[in-house]
Fold this protein.
Amino acid sequence: MFSASRAGAPHGHIIPLFTDPHRPDAGDTAPASSAGGPLDPYWQQVAAHHERRMARQQAFDTEIAARRLDGEIASAEADVAANAPADGEGLHHAMHGEVDRHTGRVLLKGRFDTLFDNFLKQAPPELRAGLASRKPALREAGSVRMAMQQLQRRAQYEQDQLAAAQAEELDTIAKSDPDDHPAFDAARHAGLDLIAKMNLDPERRLQAEAAWRDRAATTRIEALIARDPRGALELLRGVIAQQAQPGGGQTFKNDRGQDNGS
């Protein structure tokens, strides 16, 4: 992860830290100051230049290390997501644990904590403080990502389960007597009841309910066509006639006077 040592300058060469055409005379090989006193302006500039250079170097190395850390966090999040259950349960906590919103204290450690702490131990000592200061922000950003993934996984799970349940109900309708109104209503309401229990906003709930009613009615009509084409034709004519009238409803009767409302 990190190299064991840093490459130094070749032997016999000195990397200049500061150059200035107005250096002191060649004879001035030491700072012109009394023991323990302040440095003269030239050497003060040399010291300041060295401090700035080292600060930039440390900032650069910290950023490179942080990029490696980001990559490891992303890899860990992908692994946690890949091994989470179909409904996404526990996905967020497995990665980022739980933090007290009021105090910021970690109540439950997750994989993020283990990964970060191990990374920090292997980092050069001079980089650890800079990396450690990023931990709260990295946890917060990752927590939002994993929470969104968990919500999306749950939403997809509910959609998949709804589709499977509705397929069973449609199969029941298709195999039932299309004139068996109680059986049709039971199958249709089973689909609506499941939609009512889903985590949907009001608009999407209405859309899902309308789509289910249409599919249930279509399946019932297809079953009637298969059994009694003439009766189905009269049924469709009645539907079209009612929909053409102002306030026309969905209740209609076939040629035997039976109610086929959906």
